[in-house]
## 1
Amino acid sequence: MADGAMTATFLAVIGGASLLAVTARRLRPSDRLPSLDGWALADRSLGPGWTWLLLGGTIYTAYTFTAVPGLAYGNGAPAFFAVPYTVIVCPLAFVLLSRLWSVARRHGYVTAADFVRGRYGSPPLALVVALTGILATMPYLALQLLGIRAVLAAGGLYPHGATGDLLMVALFAGLAVATYRHGLRAPAVIAALKAVAVFVSLTAVCWLVLRRFGGPGAVFDGAGRALGGTDAAHSPLLLTAGQQPAYATLALGSALALLMYPHVLTAGFAADTSRTLRKVSVGLPAWTALLALFGFLGIAALAAGVRAPEGGAEAAVPMLVERLMPGPVAGLVFGAIVVGALVPAAVMSIAAATSFVRNVYVEYVHPTATPKRQVRIAKAVSLTAKVGAVAFVFGLRDQDAINLQLLGGVWILQIFPAVAVGLYTRWLHPRALLAGWAVGMATGTYLVVREGFSSIVPLDLGAGPLEVYAGVAALLLNLTVAVTGTGVLRLLGVTRGRDATDLPSRLLPRRHPETGANTP
């Protein structure tokens, strides 16, 4: 049961988030008429500081902060794939996100599907991009609630039965109201509190852990012994040769997939300039360091002898915090993780609603909808998404949400050719991209389901089975079909839609008159 000091600190953090959400309308106020740009993207007005807070707070979710240490607690080194994966994201964001922002700002695009619609002139391809994004986002949204519940339960702050459910609903209700009224500005201001609370609390926890164990070496040796070895170097804590392909492909595939998620693009599109996005991309590794420390705490939980419930390894770090930390510090950590769920959950609901309105409702239901009506529909859909996530968490097993989120990562990766490759070349035919997407979706789903909803699957390449990330295997097949199909369609002379963007049709060198150098 939580003590009074822990509860007071926890409520102070949650109360601070609520107060900040109320002031969200003051962030970059605008006298413009209602529009999706204003509600969903904060009028594309966020500078480097706010964009760094929002993008980092959106990418690094509460479930990430519990799942990564939970995986480290249960499996050791494989959990740290999240560190190189988020490191790879930074240069990708520097290149891809800033270029996509420039095109979106110039043409008024709000979603990735808007870009695909303009680039290829193909409504069906844009529709599947939008629907894939929504489909992959919804279980991710539900996982934020699972992260909140795991933290509160481990800290003794989640009452059993209907009372606990009402507490969850109350926490989410404040977020829903703030997001409904202020759009992206609400999670942007809450992200500031998230950054302060998480960085401060995690620094304090890691310092206390290192002080108790006598340094990081002692922590890793203790964890190695807990896993059945003699020390860290002679234990299951380290990667084996057979795990390395899975580790590498999981890191690469996850990095490519992350920038395709609608909530990440929504946070990026809110920046005021492409230069801002490049600056923020350089600063994102600070959040990656934070994630690495959370993974370290999973190792520390092993060393401390924490016994997480079976099937509930994500509770290992909250249990460690409750055991080792003073009440106020523990309350601060729990509050920080809960606030850490509110930011991405809000952005996810906004992104899913915006994709639905722009690429389904306006495209196929009400093409003449005014900007004011689009905002009204987006608000309603955003609220419905949050209610659906709550119902999903209460109505289904936790493992169901996790399984769907694993599939979501594989699914969202299949739009990479249409979006990311399309930023640099229009050579791929939209019908071939559709065929590649369909093959990739079917293959990825089959591989994951066949292995009992494991995203790591064995492939027999002749020299024995090789374990790789299912999303990468499906993406390679997707690209093969798209390239082959494009060649066939070009030979047959099949026409394609008009390109409404001002991007070059293919990647060509550009000569700089000052130096004579060629650059793409």
## 2
Amino acid sequence: MAESVLSSPSLLSRPSDATESFWVSLRYFNFYRISVAAVFLLAVVAYGDLLNLGSHAPRLFSVVSSTYLTLAIGFQVVMRKWPEYFDMQLSTHVIVDILALVLMMYASSGFRSGIGVMLLTSLAGAALVSRGALMLFYAALASIALLLEQSYWVLTHDAGTASFFQPGLLSIGYFATALITNQLAQRVIVNERVARQRGTDLADQLRINQLVIHDVQDAILVVDSNGLVRQQNPAIDALMGCVAPELDQIESYSPDLAAHLTRWRNGDGQAVLMLHFPGSGKRVRARFIAAGVEGGSYTLVFLEDQSRLQDQAQQLKLAALGRLTANIAHEIRNPLSAITHAGDLLREESKDAGRNRLVAIIRDNAERLDRMVRDVLELSRRDRIQLQAIDLAAFLSTFIDEFVQRNSIDRSVFFVDVPADMSIEFDRVHFNQIIWNLVRNAWRHCRKQVASVHILFQRRPNQLELHIVDDGDGIPTHLQSQLFEPFFTTFSSGTGLGLYIARELCAANGTSLEYVDRPVGANFRILWQLNQR
């Protein structure tokens, strides 16, 4: 199993990372070498032969320890400036360790000094970073040096042959240490690479999740157990009608949403429900999903704008209607013209009041049908826009003058509150038609008193708003979802296309038209999102 793991190409296919790790380990191990050499040198300088170091050859011990320290410092410099030829530098370090320690062991009366045991540390350090058969070469080299040193004592100082037993055991320990340490090191390296790869995969996954959350059309909130919103996407700004707070309690986003989330977490609420965001006036479908591992406390809150689904349905409806009307508009208008002309002739020929009333009914309904055909045909030309700068205050002043003159209305009914220096980009023909539809609806339903219709402009941090407000009875809650549907009207002679066309023209000019619910009267809002303009 270990061999298959070590030979896996997916785990050992990044030698640059492993080499850097080896260099770091080698530098740390050289600090140990410097410390050992310094301790030996200081010990012999300070205590002489009291510690039995250099008892056989003090001068040799001093020279070897000082040379050992100098070479160790030189190794550190070389590794810093020339981090190349790793195996060559490693081999040089180990050979110097073996020669220095064996010579110091000889100068300290041989094997009994215990210095030979310190070669275990050098071999273990080399086995941590060596590859292939190098670790066995180092163990063999240390064993040969140890046995040669002991042979020298036997041949020149008449030591007994039985003294080879302990060096032999230590030589076996050299091989065992090298093999075991190398195997453990390989496992550590593999685990390190697996951890690094998993960390990279996790970082990639987090990045992908962030991109998905950022670009998804639905608003998403990640809420922890304390009700703190840890993550969100920009879509929440459109639902709230303002810039959403960051790292704040969910109550700051919507108190109703926070209350439903608390009930759902307690097991008393529904996972899917409908909410209303007062700031934007939008109806939102909220879904709660538990996130994280088992026992996790995070919750994903998906907020889906229902107006978007309604828009899609209305687009499909209008597309079918537009194709039908475009094909038969000519055929419809010809009979309407004939009907209207015949009605005019009947009214001229007959002075009977009853017949004239019937003729008026015929003419009114024919004109209503003609207006409906014109409105539907106008939608097919909504993409032909010519944006231009419009002085909003001057435009509305001229518009109100024209509107009151055409409809014989007292101008005091209208109150305009717009900054004098406010300019917008809009197609002038489209903007005139939108304002005409909204102001006409406001006039129909207001109380016909002074300032009954209020045209108000507001500037917010991330959006501009133009409100057309009246003091009438307002729109019942159960009808608000149908306001912008084609052919929906509460006015007996209306076509039901005015508000729908107004919203379509707003969308064509990069804005949106919304109804804002209020206690008294109706409030239609044209919205410019500054981060989209």
